[in-house]
Amino acid sequence: MINIEKLSKNYKKNEALKDISLTVKKGELFAYLGPNGAGKTTTIRILTGLTHKTGGTAYLNGFDISKETLKAKRQYGVVPQSTNLDHELSVYENLYIHGLLYHMQGAKIKERIDMLLSYVALKDRKKSPVKELSGGMKRRVLIARALLHEPVILFLDEPTVGLDATIRRRIWGLIKKIQQDGTTVFLTTHYIEEAEFLADRVAFIDKGTIVAVGTPHHLMEKQGAWAIDLIENGQVETQYFNTREDADQYNVNRHKSYTLRRVNLEDVFLTLTGKKVTE
Ligand code: ATP
Questions:
Q1: Averaged confidence pLDDT in the chain
Q2: Predicted confidence (pLDDT) at residue 203 exceeds the cutoff of 60
Q3: Which atom of ligand 1 is nearest to the CA of 42?
Q4: Which of 5, 134, 203, 279 has the largest CB neighbor count within 10 A?
Q5: Does one domain contain both 86 and 145?
């Protein structure tokens, strides 16, 4: 559904993307994970036709985003990082205008708005001005707007950034539901738990380079199952173990304070790049 080959982007001397290649299958929920400045938004901006690539190719559902831009653009909906809604207009008006931009018929737009506002649990806020909504509600309006023209791909750029844990989980439930209804989802995030919870597959990006791709389970399995964090000379040092018994054995004669925990995707990223995703 998404096919990227040797995609590159230079901003003057800054190589934001360095020949990245990725394939996302139909119906997959794919998470693109990396620290600030890694190149996540640049990738989405190229895939959605907002930024020109420097080199390589990108296809959405078989359409080349550079050569068949209009057709490629009809394949996706996008939820951007910033809330680019018209805050003076109501939820309904924001969605209706979006439908018109996609040349949808009035009756169809109304039908889709009612359906989608139920879907994102905002039916009772249809007439509310956007400025009166909470951050989580605005994010749900953005998701409804992105789905209005029935795209086969949904791009979500940091969909839960700045939201509290309860709202974040609610958005996760909604994202899963969208995938279960058949949409391919491409999600950028720097929240490890978000990628672990949602994704069928994850790609790690660091300094414009893909450093690993795989299922969360497969990537973590290589790292081990258990981790012990020890404080040594003011630094956190982490040891990895395949079994809980091995981890317990390591600690038998130690009297230092430590934390035993399950391995997570942060450990995988740290091992590959020497830094944390969340730094
Ligand atoms: P974040 O998690 O902070 O959103 P990101 O992974 O989305 O980060 P990008 O926004 O894609 O990262 O940025 C990748 C690199 O490209 C960074 O070095 C950034 O400074 C640079 N960059 C992004 N947009 C521009 C631009 N319009 N002009 C110049 N440099 C840019």
A1: 91
A2: yes
A3: 11
A4: 203
A5: yes
Does the structure show a pLDDT above 70 at 63?
A: yes
Q: How confident is the model at residue 232 (pLDDT cuts 50, 70, 90)?
A: confident
Residue 278 maps to a domain: no
CB 214 within 8 A of CB 199: no
2-20: string of b/e by CB count within 10 Å (b at 16+)?
bebeebbbeeeeebbbbeb
pLDDT at 40: 92
- Residue 255 is predicted with a pLDDT of 60
Which residue's CA is the nearest one to ligand 1's atom 29? Answer: 11
Whether 140 contacts 118, CB under 8 Å: no
The dihedral region occupied by 150, where left means phi > 0, alpha psi between -120 and 50, and beta the remainder, is: left
Can you tell me the distance from the alpha carbon of 156 to that of 202, in angstroms, rounded to the nearest whole number?
Answer: 14
Residue 176 and residue 201 in one domain: yes
Q: In the listed set 167, 198, 214, which residue is the last one of a domain according to the structure?
A: 214
Does the model's pTM come out above 0.70?
yes
Tell me which of 7, 41, 279 to substitute to probe ligand 1's pocket, judged by most ligand atoms within 8 Å of the beta carbon: 41
Helix (H, G, I), strand (E, B) or coil at 124: helix
List 90's β-bridge partners, or say none: 129
Q: In the numeric block, which tokens belong to residue 83?
A: 């809330």
Verify that 206 and 238 share a domain, yes or no: no
What amino acid occupies position 139?
Answer: R
Check which CATH number belongs to the domain holding 162 and give it.
3.40.50.300
Both tokens assigned to 109: 């737009």
